[in-house]
Amino acid sequence: MIAILTVLFLFLFGLKYYDPPLEFGIAINFGTSDDGSGDMQPAEELMPMQEQVANIEENIQETQQETAEKESVAEEVATQDNEDALAIQKQKEAKLKLEADNKIRLEKERAEKAKKDAADKAKKEQEAKKQQLDALMGGLNSKGKATGGEGDGNVAGDKGKPTGDPKAKGYYGSGGDGGGNYRLGNRQAVSKPKPLYECNEEGNVYVSIAVDKSGNVISAQPGMKGTTNSAPCLLESAKAAALKTKFSPDDTAPAKQIGLIIYNFSLSE
User: Fold this and answer.
1) 0.90 cut: is pTM over it?
2) Measured in whole angstroms, how far is the alpha carbon of residue 115 from the centre of its chain?
3) Helix/strand/coil for 147
4) Dihedrals φ, ψ of 159, to 5°?
5) Among the listed residues 137, 136, 141, the one whose alpha carbon sits nearest the alpha carbon of residue 160
6) Which of 4, 39, 135, 226 would bridge with 206, disulfide CB 3.0–4.6 Å?
7) Does residue 198 lie in a domain region?
8) 3-class secondary-structure state, position 75
């Protein structure tokens, strides 16, 4: 009885047994490294810290490379823009310089032309004065005064123009002008007598001539194509002047070389 009571007492009031037994101490959170951050507990095991660091460094390198590539592209674009802008600026400067050079050239040409025109005008005026002086010298005596007179008016004097021919009967014309109107190949006219102006008609008279090797005019036919006035007095005067014309001799020329003389008869205004 004593033994049974003892077993019952130990069973009911003895030490309690826990399966599994109770643990004692401080609970430590699950983790894979000595450091960590965040509020969410991973459900799976994280990769080791070294691999994370390696991935972070690789991401940093990739980011840096992408940034460098973008900066390079941006720099190339900026450089291209600068080069294009510089090229456009150079084209504008070249165009402005060309316009300025053309303007200077035109101004220079105008100045040279004006200078040449003035020189030609002065030369013509000088030649006209010389011709007038030469004409006057033929009618002056030793005392410098003209004697006698000629004209169809009632007033004393020598009617006509200083540039006229003393033998001409017309008083209103300026006579024939042979300068530059003698055409016979390469041969030059060495004697160019002016035609007599005996009527009040004006116009151009084209005279066909035949010249021998010595330069003599052996025949003349006035009124050829181009003549603007076929008045008989003009034709006869032109023919007479053409027959008196003398050209330079040429032994290699034909025995009868055909040429042309143009006489311009004009009336004074």
Assistant:
1) no
2) 23
3) coil
4) -75, 140
5) 136
6) 226
7) yes
8) helix
Task: DSSP letter for 21, please.
Answer: P
Q: Is 223 left (phi over 0), alpha (psi -120 to 50) or beta?
A: left
136 inside domain: no
DSSP at 36: -
Most confident of the ranges 2-16, 37-51, 101-115, 130-144: 101-115
Digit-coded pLDDT (tens) for 141-167 = 444 455 556 766 666 667 666 656 565
Query: Which amino acid is present at 137?
Result: M
223 in a structural domain: yes
By CB atoms closer than 10 A (0-12, 13-18, 19+), residue 197 is buried
**Within a domain: 217:** yes
H or E stretch at 265:
strand 257-267
Indicate the average pLDDT of the chain.
78
Residue 251 φ/ψ, nearest 5 degrees: -70, -20
Mapped onto helix, strand or coil, the DSSP state of residue 204 is strand
> Can you say whether the dihedral through the CA atoms of 118, 123, 124, 128 is positive or negative?
positive
Tens digits of residue pLDDT in 213-237:
999 999 999 999 999 999 999 999 9
Q: What is the CATH number of the domain that holds 205?
A: 3.30.2420.10
Q: Name the one residue in this structure whose structure tokens are 């002056």.
A: 140
